[in-house]
Amino acid sequence: MFFLSALVYPVVLALLCVGAGLAIDRASGGFLPGVLLPVVGAAALIAVAQLTTYVPGAAPATPHALAVVGVGGLALGWPRVRLIARHRREHRWQLALPVLAFVVALAPVLFAGRPTFSAYMVLTDSALHIMGADYLIRHGQHYAHLDLVNSYGQYINSYYNNNYPTGADALLGGSAFLVHVPVIWAFQSFNACILAAASGPAWLLARRLRLDGIWAAAAALAATVPALVYAYELFGSVKEITALPLILALGALVVVHSRWLRRGPRAVIPLALIVAGGVSALGVAFGAWAIVAVVVLAGVTVADGALARRHAGRSLVLVVSGAIILLVCAWPTWHHLSGSVQVAQAVVNSPNRGNLVSPLRAIQVFGVWLGGSYQALPGGTSLVITYALIIVTALAAVLGALHVVRIREYPLASWLALMVVLGVVVTRLGGTWSDAKTLMLSSPVFILGAWAGVAALRSGGHRLAALLVAVMLAGGVLASDVLQYHDTDLAPTARYDELAAINSRFAGRGPALFTDFDEYALYELRDLDVGGPDFLDPPKGLLGIDTGHGGKVDVTRGRAAALRVYPLIITRRDPSTIRPPSAYRLIWGGTYYQVWGRRAGAPAAIARYRLTGTRPVACRRVRAIANIATAHAATLVTASPADIVRIDLAAAHRSASWKHVAVWYVMPAPGHLQAGFQITRPGVWDVWLQGEFMPTVNVQVDGDLIGRVGGQVGGDPVVPNTTTPLRVSLTAGRHSLAIIRGGLTLAPGDGGSAILISAFLTPAGAGGQPQLHVTPPAQWRSLCGRRYVWIEAVPSR
User: Fold this and answer.
1) Which domains occur in the chain, in start order?
2) Which helix (H) or strand (E) holds 76?
3) Which tens digits make up the pLDDT trace of 150-195?
């Protein structure tokens, strides 16, 4: 699957984009520079996917429609492909740039060597896009049949049935289905591939700055993956990543206006398609960037008085033709224009910060941020170097602005200036969340401006100074990206593969209640009408069994009757959690999850007492529920806790760099922790750890290595992530547990989350599971003084 998702899929997507670009180039008169073909092609494919998914019956044909357009375009443009191949030495940088940008963007996945995606749980909006991409291809933009009781239906309805932009998601889903890659594993490759397409227009703009060869390539690469853009690509901000190359392509069409502005109406097709693609992917907010390009083009036309007088009628036809193409290709957005405007206004005006702890700093627009997270200030020396590089970038941008005017690239100068103005205005008017997106989308413009300063130094004969500034600009960007690559968390591949297996095994037997906080399960369990009580949209009627969004879930809270609509409950494999009610029995167990099925005809409990499982139950409590059971001719069912030996980490010896913060033991550097524990009987035991373990740690018992734990993260330190158990044979008596983190490596995620919360042991086999016992009410005294997690009064059948 790794080969298919990380290598085959992006190659197919790239070929589809190039093929579609060749088709559009032929249709528009053959004026497009080769570097713009992938971007224009992507815009065309978005339009195709939008139109096919708009008609529900045609939605499943979307992959085939994309293939027809892409392959047909390659066939039509084959002579041009052969010409480029024949002169590949002359085009080596244009051909190498997208590949380099793609490798940088997908580096965490490529070097992990497994299907996954980066910045896991930094922003779970990507779960929505993955789920939506799958839904759009299977059902199209049709939502009347959704179950609005459970989370799956609520999410789809809340977003896509309320005019949420679908352009990027439709292309993602259609292309993934075409290659038979699960959308969840195609997601990161899609973002990397689309971002890599931005290097084409970035190259063209760099060339207009009077940079060539490796200088232009370095400028284009730096403008494609500056620190803030890289951060957004890592956490899967698919709408903005899709919009970015389209925005740069607008600037490229502005600077090559002489190629097409005086032609017939079909010459406007690429511009109109790019705007349509941007509107479909980002919403009507993309219009702000489109207006900048249109204003500059209008200014060019007016400035050339002869052109304006001679071609006034042709210009009008051009505008009308572009409007028609824009209307048709982004029809789903225009058809629900008022709703689309409301969505854009909600994003701009929302006080919600999303995943941001605090507003981003405006200086991050300069592309350098020498820290592992774009949300936090770099520390120590890294902060000083960051500020120094930002100052160099800003000064180079000022010099570059003068250079662009001096070389009389007035359309380019106007576009760059208006883009800066737009960024300033939008960040003044918007909220924290929309401001961050605007800074990201504006960052490549500032980077290109700084490289214009490099061009100015070169043209002025200051070649050594130009080289030094270029090294600082490129080095600062790449160093920033490397730090984020190193510190990113990667999604747990095996756990999601197990969820996919559960979905296949139990498809159609839902609805299913899901007790783990993981909104990516909405995609993996899409055939089970899944509901998550701690999700942003919890199931209706289950209030009280969770502690809020991302909080803990206890299905024994709330009304027992409310669970009757759920034939299945899916829980993490974790003996420390509370067992589902007695109406459910374990019907499937895996490495990470357990599936509980409701017994046919099982009645709901009349009453239930929730207990700690750690202290003996008082007789008065047993008598009270026994009286209820007697009055209703019911029986008592008790759930005994698993036999757990907890390890006291507070008394552990640990390295000085491993800090104890609240309930977490943070392991940021190489070190170890050692704690003792007592076993009362010999046998085979399972060792369980709870925490976030992106880097690999060694686990030893009595000095012997029993296994390694790594790449096991849940992304939510509030709800402990329980790792797969490690088995060990122990004698009765005193033992020691050691957790050791070795030296840092260059592996992706090696600087990621490293948090230990707790550790415990359970007997291997049935002893590690809570046990149920049935007791007649008359024998209630036999339950006194024992430990239980709950006692139920259950009607007799």
Assistant:
1) 2-346+357-487 (no CATH), 605-633+780-797 (no CATH), 645-768 (2.60.120.260)
2) helix 62-76
3) 999 999 998 898 888 999 999 999 999 999 999 999 999 999 999 9
